[in-house]
Amino acid sequence: MIFEHLSKNKKMLLLALTSILVVGVFLFLYSPVIFQEGNPWPQIKGIMQLKFSDADIVQLSGSNNKFMTESKNGMVIHNFMGTKGYEFTGQMGSGYFFKSPKGRSAVATHKYYSRYYSLWTITEHQENSLADELKECLPKSDTANHEKCNELLKQITDYNSCVNAGFSIMESNPPQCATLDGRTFIQKINST
Asked: Which phi and psi angles does 178 have, rounded to 5°?
């Protein structure tokens, strides 16, 4: 009876050691895949959500712009961006470009996590700000761009709009902002 109990312990110990060895070999061989994104828990959770729910795309925990899909269906990202109000405009390499009727744009970048799963990083861009439009037209010297820049400069009517348009702030007291057309705006300071 003592020998039977001892042999059961040896069998359990051998089973536990074999399990640890198998898991260790698995982690050693597949660690570049498992840990390619750092902590693998968000991806493992995403895989479980894809497997055990009817979702085609899941947002990875801890991130606002990272998503996971199964690799077999490439149209998932098109459908997902369509639900957010975007239309597909083109693809360049692993980047998928989308545009909304309101002028916003987005880029969805694809990356394989494994043969079966894909990671997507979606970056949304707001429509061009006044500063972006001025950066585009100021270096150009043709008449159309000159007129466009003059119209954009007319939108600058106070200190805050001057700063938001990307013009520099002068080190003075009170601070001042000067536009390229020679206008200077002084920051209004409330005195109590």
From this structure: -115, 135
Per-residue pLDDT tens over the stretch 17-40: 999 999 888 888 888 877 777 788
CA 115, CA 110: separation in Å to the nearest integer? 13
CA 39 centroid distance within chain: 18
Tell me the pTM.
0.56
- Both structure tokens of 192: 């109590």
The span from the CA of 50 to the CA of 67, in Å, is 11
- The token pair at 12 is 């359990």
Q: What is the DSSP string of 96-132?
A: EEEE-TTS-EEEEEEEESSSSEEEEEEEEEPPPPHHH
Whether 89 contacts 101, CB under 8 Å: no
